[in-house]
Write a structure and sequence with these properties.
Keywords: Signal. This is Transporter substrate-binding domain-containing protein. It comes from Streptomyces coryli. The chain is of the alpha/beta class. It has two domains: 30-115 and 207-243, Periplasmic binding protein-like II (D-Maltodextrin-Binding Protein, domain 2); 118-201, Periplasmic binding protein-like II (D-Maltodextrin-Binding Protein, domain 2). The chain is built from nine helices and eleven strands. The protein starts with 39 loop residues before the first strand and ends in a 7-residue tail after the last helix.
Length: 250
């Protein structure tokens, strides 16, 4: 059985379907919110998802709803998942945070907006279809991420190798230093373009935006904007544009 399975195609920020319907009527204005930069909603996102388009359009909707400009700031996945980026006031919202009970202890999370699945990456012609195929094999993960926690729980028969950054992890897969890596689907897509193989790993978890626990007004504004996008259908249309299917439970 071939290893390759298709992952959702991530579009650019210039996608034709915009999340701007019903904008500017939330009742909450940017001037009423404790934003890190006055008049601007600053959102942390990890590369390459920072330029992926879907979360950026969600951020556009939130910013437009409160009458603010939007600014995307790149941050490491570890700093986003740990809450360090928010704690340092690098941003008002962090995108792509896995909505877990552990994260809710340190951050305030919006209603989830997309599946938080991982992608298994390996060299071309590898025959690993899931984590169960990696018994006794080296599996790379990035420290401080949901993928690391998932591997610790679900890949106990693999030799889990921890990397501080994603690039060295992917390089180790390419060179054969490790047999596979667990990464975000957006990172895996870029890796696949170089001739590697990828497979989706469904976790049952979901992604949300995160805010500082002290920033309940920002969290409320984000949830209001996302709820309106769901109600007017623009969320579903944009989700399908980016992921190829209608959203389920997000």
């Amino acid at each position: 059985m071939p290893f390759v399975r298709s992952l959702p195609q991530i579009s650019t920020a210039a996608a034709a379907v915009a999340l701007l319907a019903g904008c500017g009527d939330s009742g909450t204005e940017a001037s009423d919110l404790p934003l890190v930069k006055k008049g601007t909603l600053t959102v942390c996102a990890a590369p390459p998802a920072a330029a992926a388009g879907f979360e950026e359009q969600l951020a556009d909707r939130i910013a437009d709803d409160i009458g603010a400009k939007k600014r995307i700031v790149e941050a490491s996945l570890a700093d986003i998942e740990s809450g360090a980026a928010l704690k340092a006031k690098t941003c008002d919202l962090a995108a792509g945070v896995t909505a877990t009970a552990e994260h809710r202890k340190t951050m305030a999370l919006t209603k989830p907006y997309a599946p938080a699945d991982h992608a298994l990456v390996a060299q071309k012609d590898a025959e690993y279809e899931d984590l169960g195929d990696l018994k006794g094999k080296k599996l790379g993960v990035q420290s401080g991420t949901a993928a690391k926690a998932y591997a610790d729980d679900k890949a106990k028969d693999a030799d889990v190798i921890v990397y501080d950054e994603l690039d060295p992890l992917l390089k180790a897969v390419k060179t054969g230093k490790i047999q596979a890596g667990l990464a975000t689907p957006s990172a895996a897509q870029g890796f696949a373009k170089d001739g590697a193989e990828t497979a989706a790993v469904s976790t049952g978890e979901r992604h949300a935006f995160a805010a500082r626990r002290s920033s309940k007004e920002i969290l409320g504004a984000a949830n209001d904007a996302l709820a309106k996008a769901r109600e007017d259908g623009s969320y579903a249309r944009t989700y399908k544009k980016h992921f190829g299917s209608a959203p389920k439970g997000a």
